[in-house]
Design a protein that fits this description.
Layout: E1 11-18, E2 21-28, E3 34-39, E4 42-47, E5 52-57, H1 62-69, H2 77-83, E6 84-94, E7 97-106, H3 109-114, E8 117-123, E9 129-135, E10 141-145, E11 169-172
Length: 173
């Protein structure tokens, strides 16, 4: 039996690099409203519906996580090749942009168990990812399309802080 789920989440994602420090924040719009923040080596996920914030310490896997996190958003080709085998699949257009499609195979076994293949469509003019497709071991995949990308804009520090309700339960993992 084939079950296809075609759900779409919309929101905003932010990346900021200060020296070697990387921060990421994502806000997903309702109906499944949530906020995800990676800062200071911790991953925080807040779901508005459950009023629960889950906090994870990236710890020993921080470098792997950061590499995975910024795929196509400021990682150099050399950085990418440290963590992935990279194969060029050809040129494709996404909207008006010409992209180079790359297939990445994770080198780290733990990452490979979760996502054995990742396809990126890199805008050849700006060097940014316009689409990412993450393949799971069972053949399922997730696609993320990025638009309205703004580079080198000042981002408020508040973007990288969870905004929760007063009755939020925090669970540390």
């Amino acid at each position: 039996m084939i079950k296809e789920v075609d759900g779409t989440d919309k929101g905003k994602i932010y990346f900021r690099r200060d020296g070697k420090e990387i921060e990421m924040a994502a806000g997903i719009a309702p109906p499944d409203e949530q906020q995800i923040v990676f800062s200071g080596g911790k991953i925080k996920v807040y779901r508005a519906q459950t009023k629960q914030a889950n906090v994870y310490d990236a710890g020993a896997h921080r470098e792997e996580f950061e590499t995975f996190l910024v795929l196509g958003f400021g990682s150099s080709g050399a950085d990418m090749r440290k963590s992935f085998e990279v194969k060029y699949l050809g040129d494709e257009k996404i909207g008006d942009a010409q992209t180079a499609r790359l297939q990445l195979t994770p080198i780290a076994p733990k990452v490979k168990q979760q996502f054995p293949r990742i396809d990126l469509w890199i805008d050849t003019q700006r060097g940014l990812s316009l689409r990412q497709q993450l393949w799971q071991t069972n053949g399922d995949y997730r696609v993320a399309d990025y638009s309205n990308i703004q580079v080198n804009k000042k981002i408020s520090d508040n973007v990288f802080k969870l905004r929760t309700s007063g009755d939020t339960t925090v669970v540390n993992h």
